[in-house]
Design goal:
The protein is of the alpha/beta class. It has 19 helices and ten strands. The chain is 50% helix and 12% strand. Bound molecules: iron/sulfur cluster. Iron/sulfur cluster (SF4) binds next to α6 and α8.
Length: 422
């Protein structure tokens, strides 16, 4: 239902929802503490700091004693706090197009302005300064340009891992190639940390990561139940520790607590919606600056957004501490974003079936074609193979100039009206 106010279309149900009590996941309180300790810990720690891409070899770095900081997480923070739009023009002034990754442009722009949400939220003096910068282009080439900019700014050593891209399946030669690159990191890490490589420490770190990843996967899978206790929008918040604290006991403990809470809701048949009239799969990046809005929009239409490949991107089934290099090379090279269209379609079809999905929303993020999957006929192929309805919405991860609340709301509500009740 809509009405018009000051020439703007307004979703009436969303206004009503503001007075409705939200379903609350209690583990959120622990999340706040963990994230605060993670960021403030980097300021007070005397350990060296490595910057790493979100699906880079964090476990290997941690095994040397690095604290690990993730600029993409900072990009998401700039998006979620709706500050990205203030900083993107700074990056444009030094030649970074506003059409490229808005994590990159927002992050570079905030740095140029000497500001960060970490200052206000956690009392930091700015982003943690790197002693080493490591990227993996398994997700995109943009990270190479982004991290190279900062390596120059901080006069810091930088190391890039360049795996084969867009693979159908990862083969033995690919694994050899990437694990060799991982091994080439060792002398850099030894030189910076003054710690000798310890294979047992690496195995232990990868083991902790594997445990956390399994608990994260099980938490996501509680949404296979109807009613679902956990939405995609909740998952984008609770994924913080699996991104930034993989390879620590903290992440493992956190997901144990989260999974226990969600399991209790499943047993009690308690969901974030009392009655689900449709179940949706969100494909692509979150719209960080409109997360709450989007969550409310679906809730008020009794629609449960329960699956995504985005949140599953930090599920690494292949980690195996017996073969730490080869198994992490396999896990990090076979991530969804690094797969062929053919492989991606099969992954999506599996999720549609397992989560009893009625409709798939493809978020066509204007500054991240790497993680947008609507441009090469995928929505049509998925609909043909599974029978589910698909919808493409335009938006962005951080740059809200590419997002129209009105148009998106109309498109989504029209889709939801069409969907059958499960
Ligand atoms: S995958 Fe997309 S959002 Fe992530 S760093 Fe690359 S271009 Fe940016």
């Amino acid at each position: 239902m809509h009405y018009y106010k000051n020439n703007k279309i307004v979703n009436f149900s969303i206004l009503v929802h503001k007075i409705i009590k939200m379903f609350e996941i209690k583990t959120s309180k622990l999340l706040k503490t963990i994230m605060r300790d993670y960021f403030t810990g980097m300021q007070t720690s005397n350990k060296p700091i490595a910057w790493c891409t979100s699906v880079g070899p964090a476990e290997l770095l941690r095994s040397f004693g690095f604290e690990v900081y993730f600029p993409e997480n900072h990009g998401a923070l700039l998006g979620a706090t709706r500050k990205a739009g203030d900083y993107i023009p700074n990056a444009a002034k030094i030649g970074y197009s506003s059409d490229i990754c808005s994590y990159l442009t927002a992050d570079v722009g905030a740095y140029m302005q000497k500001t960060s949400p970490l200052m206000k939220h956690y009392g930091l003096s700015g982003v943690p300064k790197p002693d080493f910068i490591v990227y993996n282009t398994n997700q995109c080439r943009e990270v190479q340009d982004w991290f190279t900019y900062f390596a120059k700014e901080f006069s810091c050593p930088i190391f890039g891992i360049l795996p084969p891209r867009h693979v159908d399946e990862v083969n033995i030669e690919d694994i050899k190639n990437v694990s060799k690159q991982f091994k080439s990191l060792i002398p850099y890490c030894e030189n910076i940390t003054k710690n000798k490589f310890d294979i047992d420490r690496f195995r232990e770190t990868l083991g902790m990561s594997k445990d956390a990843v399994e608990l994260w996967k099980k938490s996501l899978e509680t949404s296979k139940n109807t009613p679902s206790p956990f939405s995609f929008f909740d998952a984008t918040i609770h994924m913080g520790p699996i991104v930034v604290l993989r390879g620590t006991d903290i992440a493992k403990t956190y997901y144990k607590t989260l999974f226990a809470e969600l399991s209790d809701y499943v047993t009690a048949r308690k969901g974030f919606l009392e009655k689900e009239s449709s179940r949706i799969y969100w494909e692509g990046m979150p719209i960080w600056g409109r997360l709450r809005y989007m969550s409310d929009l679906f809730i008020q239409n009794n629609s449960a957004v329960v699956a995504s490949t985005y949140c599953n991107s930090w599920v690494f089934d292949d980690f195996d501490k017996k073969n730490p290099f080869e198994s992490s090379a396999l896990a990090y090279t076979s991530i969804f974003i690094n797969r062929s269209e053919k492989a991606k379609l099969e992954i999506m079809k599996k999720l549609v079936k397992e989560y009893k999905i009625g409709g798939v929303i493809f978020h066509d993020a204007k500054t991240c074609f790497n993680n947008s999957n609507a441009s090469f006929g995928m929505p049509g192929r998925l609909k043909k193979d599974t029978g589910v309805e698909t919808l493409i919405i335009e938006g962005d991860l951080c740059d809200l100039r590419f997002f129209s609340e009105e148009q998106t709301t109309i498109k989504i509500e029209t889709l939801l009206e069409q969907l059958t009740i499960y």
